[in-house]
Amino acid sequence: MRLNILHMGFIYSGGGERVAIEQTRRLRKRGHKVKLYAPIIRWDRCFPTALRDAAPTALLKFPPIPFLRDAGAMIMSSILPVGLRKLSDCDVLLCHSQPSMWIGYRLKRLLGVPFVGYLHQLTTFIHKRPEMTGGWSTKADFALLDSLLGMFGRGLARELDLICHRAADRLIFNSIWTRSLFQKEYGVTGEVCYPGLDASDTARRRDTHRDNMVLTASRHYPWKRIDLAFHVLKRLACERPQLIVVGESTPHTPYLRSVVRSLGLDDYVNFTGFITDEMLKQFYGHAAAYVQTSVHEPFGLGPLESQLSGVPAVVWGDAGVRETVLDGETGFHANPYDIQDFADKLGMILTDRELWQRMSRAARIMASTFDWDTHIDLLESVLDEARR
């Protein structure tokens, strides 16, 4: 097949970006002619090694101005008929969320190209997260897009969003949770195709001793609620571990540091800043537990990666992480959003050696079922059915 894959932008090292990159690389290995596109490409910020291998093409050339460059690229690619001709050179277009879905819709209407949506979450500019997620962005570009929608009307934006999702030839979702949200909001459905993991490329320490260290790896954005992990750490009744906070600094990071200071946890919390994939694997190999405290996480790659390395995970018992952490078997689901319950369950993993060993073994087995071959098998099937 001749396939074009369109992602909203390679701005940071996130789970959705990883999926688009791996789809491109692995479909090529199966003999398909695949090109990867995006309105925005930041080569130094998004899985630099893997991104170079996938070799995406910018949808349009944009002046190298530092201010609001990302927002400008998104707006121009969504409104202007730029890049549509080169995107049409395929049997089917695979679109990752917005504005890719809108571009796919325009391409289908103008040039008859079928498109398939791979959906990671509801469009967050339109469907706001729960209030407890706090301000939804600290990035000026995204704040601008949010303001523009507020100015022109989210009702209209929702209708356009609905139109392009219903016009897709097929839809694929990253979790059952994500599919349920789209079914409720838009009355659409499709296949669930979980992101995969590469078991051969993971630090797989099998020793039963781990450092007294807990790991969390998320983008430093308000809705990830990394600050809740600090409150969990404060509530632990057992010997307090070191909490390693992985992630590139953002304008939200100073706030996170201030929470650490206010709780008197300066000696127990370490911010790594940006680290490579190899360094992250080493952390997985030493950690005793993984925590994810984001609210309404659609899938959550971090807990799954940790479990592949034998690290039990504690997450809130809501949203997509319920599908990737088995409560009482590979980790725990804490009652949403009960800090003390989260702390109690994390404490059990840190202090009960037999429990840790049992969960560690089960975690490896469970996480290994999320493999890329299964993902690509299903993806190929859906794309083949949708192609012209």
Structure report:
It is a single chain. The strands form two sheets. Strands 3-2-1-4-5-6-7 form a seven-stranded parallel β-sheet, sandwiched between helices. It has a six-stranded parallel β-sheet with strand order 10-9-8-11-12-13, with helices on both faces. Helices cover 43% and strands 15% of the residues. α12 links the parallel β11 (289-292) and β12 (313-316). With 388 residues, it is α/β, with parallel strands linked by helices. It has two domains: 2-196 and 371-386, Rossmann fold, CATH 3.40.50; 199-367, Glycogen Phosphorylase B (Rossmann fold, 3-Layer(aba) Sandwich). It has helices at residues 15-29, 48-54, 69-79, 84-87, 100-111, 140-152, 154-167, 176-186, 227-235, 253-262, 277-286, 301-308, 339-351, 353-367, 372-386; strands spanning 2-7, 33-38, 57-58, 92-96, 115-119, 170-173, 191-192, 213-217, 242-246, 269-273, 289-292, 313-316, 331-334. It is globular and about 65 Å long. The longest helix has 15 residues, at 15-29.
